[in-house]
Amino acid sequence: xxxxxxxxxxxxxxxxxxxxxxxxxxxxxxxxxxxxxxxxxxxxxxxxxxxxxxxxxxxxxxxxxxxxxxxxxxxxxxxxxxxxxxxxxxxxxxxxxxxxxxxxxxxxxxxxxxxxxxxxxxxxxxxxxxxxxxxxxxxxxxxxxxxxxxxxxxxxxxxxxxxxxxxxxxx
Length: 171
Description:
Layout: E1 21-28, E2 38-45, E3 52-55, E4 65-69, E5 72-79, E6 85-92, E7 99-106, E8 116-123, E9 130-134, E10 138-140, E11 144-148, E12 152-158, E13 164-170
Antiparallel strand pairs: 1-2, 2-4, 3-5, 5-6, 7-8, 8-11, 9-10, 9-12, 12-13
C-alpha cells in the first residue's frame, strides 16, 4: 500500500529445482578374488545444468563410468551446476577365492606303476571348475585324475572365468 492508499497484490510462485535422482547403478564384479577389473556404471537425472559424478574422494567427472575397481564400499556423489547433490553408498562384491575344498591322494601301489589317483573338489570362483595336473596333459572336469606315476605334480583348479589356484602334490 502506498501513500494514496493504493495497493497491488501480486501472486508469486516459487518453483523448486528438479531433484537429482540416481536412475541406475550397474555393477561389474571383479573377475576373480582380489582383481581390480570391476566397474560401476551410474546414470542420474534431474538437477539443474550439467551433472558431475564423484566416487569416494576422486575428482568429479561428467560421466558415471568408473572402471578398474576392486571389491569394496564406494561413496557416490552426484552434483548439479548449482551445487545441489545426492549421495549414495554402493558395495561392489567379488566372487569367493578359488580353492580346494577336498583333496584325496591315492599313491602308487608299486614302484614304477601308473596307478596313482587323485580326487579333488574345488570351491569358490564362478563354478564350472576344471582341474589340471602337470607335468603331463591331465585335465578333468569331474575332479578325478588317475593313471598317475609316482612324482611331484602341480595341481591347478580353474573356474569358468579363468580364476585359479595352484598347489604342489606328491604322489
